[in-house]
Write a structure and sequence with these properties.
This protein is mainly alpha-helical and 166 residues long. It contains six helices and no strands. The relative contact order is 0.20. The model has no long low-confidence stretch (mean pLDDT 84).
Length: 166
């Protein structure tokens, strides 16, 4: 027999956190696989390097980026699951991370809309802007929903009634 189940708003917040992290990771991975851009940027920063050195640096950067992306996705998933089980520390950690992400997303959107990004030489593609809007909305919604479920944080609960946890 399973214990008490997390409130619907906490479960939806958990799903929103995981979805936002997944979408952000997909955008990051897509940027990592734009090899031409990475090589041209490496060549611009270090014109004295040979092609073999640039390729090795780009390959190492891609591998390191993939490891970081997977680690971030796992961290967000674990935090979201802990939050949905009633762990207050996870809710606070997600609030801090989410607030920083929402603030950064809003900063990017304002910089793009005002033209400050273009005048600084930062190119913002439509896909990046779309992902920024989506992840900002998902994370802001998740923050609101997980704080709406504050009463359930008095007791620890299971995330899914089909898989009881202690």
């Amino acid at each position: 027999m399973a214990g008490p189940v997390a409130p619907r708003s906490a479960d939806v917040a958990r799903r929103l956190w995981i979805a936002s992290a997944g979408i952000g990771m997909l955008r990051f991975v897509a940027q990592l696989f734009d090899r031409e851009l990475l090589v041209s940027e490496a060549r611009r920063q270090n014109p004295a390097l040979g092609q073999d050195q640039i390729d090795a640096g780009v390959n190492g950067g891609i591998l390191f980026g993939l490891l970081i992306a997977v680690a971030i996705l796992l961290a967000y998933s674990r935090l979201a699951n802990a939050m949905a089980r009633g762990r207050n520390w996870a809710r606070i950690a997600l609030t801090v991370l989410g607030a920083a992400s929402v603030a950064f997303g809003l900063f990017r959107l304002v910089a793009w809309a005002s033209g400050a990004a273009a005048s600084a030489g930062v190119e913002m593609r439509p896909v990046d802007l779309g992902v920024t809007v989506v992840t900002t909305v998902l994370e802001a919604s998740a923050i609101v929903l997980m704080w709406r479920a504050s009463a359930h944080f008095r007791t620890r609960v299971t995330v899914d009634s089909a898989s009881p946890r202690t």
